Amino acid sequence: MTFRSLGEFLEKLEGAGDLVRVQRPVARDLEITEVTQRTLAADGPALLFENVPGAAMPVVTNLLGSPRRIALALDAPDLDSVADRIARLVRLRPPAGVLGAVRDLSGTIETLSTLRTLAPKRVKSAPCQEVEEPTVDLDRLPILKCWPKDGGRTVTFPVVVTSDPETGESHTGIYRLQQYGSDTLGMHFQVHRVGANNYRKWAARGEKMPVAAVIGIDPATIFAGLAPVPEGLSNFVFAGFLRSEPLELVRTRTSELEVPAQAEVVLEGYVDPTERHVEGPFGDHTGYYSAPEPFPVFHVTRVTHRERPVYLGTVTGKPPTEDAVLGKAVERVFLPVVRLVLPEIVDMNLPVPGLFINVGVVSIRKSYPGHPRKVMHALWGLGQMMFVRYLVVVDADVHVHDLSEVLYRVGLQADPARDLELVEGPVDQLSISNPVPNLGGKVGIDATRKGPEDGFPRPWPEEIRSDPAAARAAEETMRSDPALARLLGRPAK
Ligand SMILES: Cc1cc2nc3c(=O)[nH]c(=O)nc-3n(C[C@H](O)[C@H](O)[C@H](O)COP(=O)(O)O)c2cc1C
Fold first, then answer.
1. Are 86 and 212 found together in one domain?
2. Which residue would you say has higher pLDDT here, 393 or 244?
3. Enclosing domain of residue 298
């Protein structure tokens, strides 16, 4: 089922018993966070806070805080089937983008027809513009203050729309917006983001960058905003692909930018390249407060919304959090895209405690000398994988999601004197251990088995494996004894 709006998705969740309406008054400062975190930690439902004192609209949190709701949002029985669909789409298009497809690919016609049917549709009137506020007053929105030392209330789950001034291509990303005043917000796009790149291009032309922030929209469009969508593929087209139905876009009132017609609330305005203002502290997904730092200022010049809008928020912090659940889903559904570039990769685990940017484990089919190091460097050159600071490469038969097994392989099979690849390069803006912001060390650990082809001079020992006949006999013996039979099939400790 395709959800065209946040409201349709909420209805579905409520019908499935996966949404709870909270009718008691709950404060938008700190208290919504506490209820949300406790609910998410218990794998609980999405929350609709209907009575938020001082707020003109209800607040939804924990919308996508469980893999089951993410799969439902993406209209799939599970995340693996989303991964399969993305693999088929990406295989259809060359890295050079849609135009390149015309020239380069034998599957051209299929590519174009698939993408054409997903192209957004333009509409003239839209639910998100049912009401146009006569003046801009951000205090009318239930913007949340999540943690005690946050520098201000923050729009935590907006889909921010910017455009490339050279190509006119629009882009969406989730970037938090801390409230500075009644019509200004901090535009927290980190330096590596496409939104920040668009900003630099507008700044180089000496022009203000038009911006629109969408608060509350159908979940596939949200997912397309937070996902590392391959370059050359529009987020709006990707959202249409995830929904299996094109997105409807409407022109904003104050600029050429287009926004999803079914949005709940739209903030329109601009960022002036000559102006910055300190953003933060903010309780971030590292579990630490991000230090105050200057960011561009988003001047909101128009607010439009539905007749009866719903405000969407999320809470970041030390996992478990909604963005951690989403990060895991991104890892699963984008594995085929990684495999397209590196077919030797069997599986990948970006463990939640590693915050998706700190620790990664990949298993590979190792075929030639230096192969694990080639994989490390290729991954460090692949989109947001550039941020992974500890990258472990193991053999194809190692289960990367079993971290005990991974640690066993690292401890036993990696020699710190020769199996570490130490490099320096870009690191995530939120990383805290690098002395210089955005630049730091990364290490690859080759924990694969070694042989003469790796220049390893000693014979690699043989691993102990059971004798199959003895194993079968043992199972029969155990099955015949009630006390032992119970132990069969239990996971090993
Ligand atoms: C809840 C949530 C909050 C996020 N907040 C920010 C943010 O404040 N700044 C930022 O640069 N990225 C943030 N991200 C990550 C980006 O949305 C993500 O990297 C996305 O792929 C956009 O990257 P791009 O602009 O390079 O395409 C957030 C992600 C989530 C799920």
1. yes
2. 393
3. 6-312
- Give yes or no for residue 193 CB within 6 A of ligand 1: yes
Rounded Cα distance, 211 and 233, in Å: 20
Task: Answer yes or no: is the C-beta of 64 below 6 A from any ligand 1 atom.
Answer: no
In a domain, 51, yes or no: yes
Q: Which residue has the tokens 């949005």?
A: 263
pLDDT band at 470 (very low <50, low <70, confident <90, very high): very high
**Catalytic pick among 150, 218, 284, 419:** 284
pLDDT tens string 369-421: 999 999 999 999 999 999 999 999 999 999 999 999 999 999 999 999 999 99
Integer angstrom CA distances of residue 216 from 185, 189, 309 = 17, 19, 9
Domains of the chain: total: 3
Question: For residue 6, is pLDDT > 80?
Answer: yes
Do 219 and 366 share a structural domain?
no
Is 397 tagged catalytic?
A: no
Distance linking the first and last C-alpha atoms of the chain: 41
The three-class DSSP label of residue 453 is helix
Question: 43 with 165, same domain?
Answer: yes
Residue 326 has pLDDT above 50, yes or no: yes
Q: For the domain that residue 126 is a member of, what is the CATH number?
A: 2.30.110.10
Backbone angles phi, psi at 185, to 5 degrees: -140, 155
122 shares a domain with 230: yes
pLDDT interval class at 111 (50, 70, 90)? low
Q: Is 195 in the pocket of ligand 1 (CB under 6 A)?
A: yes
Read off the tokens for 333.
């559904």
pLDDT at residue 108, as a whole number: 45
Is residue 287 located within the same domain as residue 346? Answer: no
**Distance in Å, CA 401 to ligand 1 centroid:** 25
CA-to-CA dists, residue 333 to 82, 119, 296, 337, 340, angstroms: 6, 21, 32, 8, 13
pLDDT, tens only, 55-73: 999 999 999 999 999 999 9
Which of 60, 174, 430 maximizes ligand 1 atoms within 8 Å of its Cβ, making it the mutation to test the pocket? 174
- Show Cβ contacts of residue 115 under 8 Å, excluding neighbours closer than 6 positions: 93, 98, 237
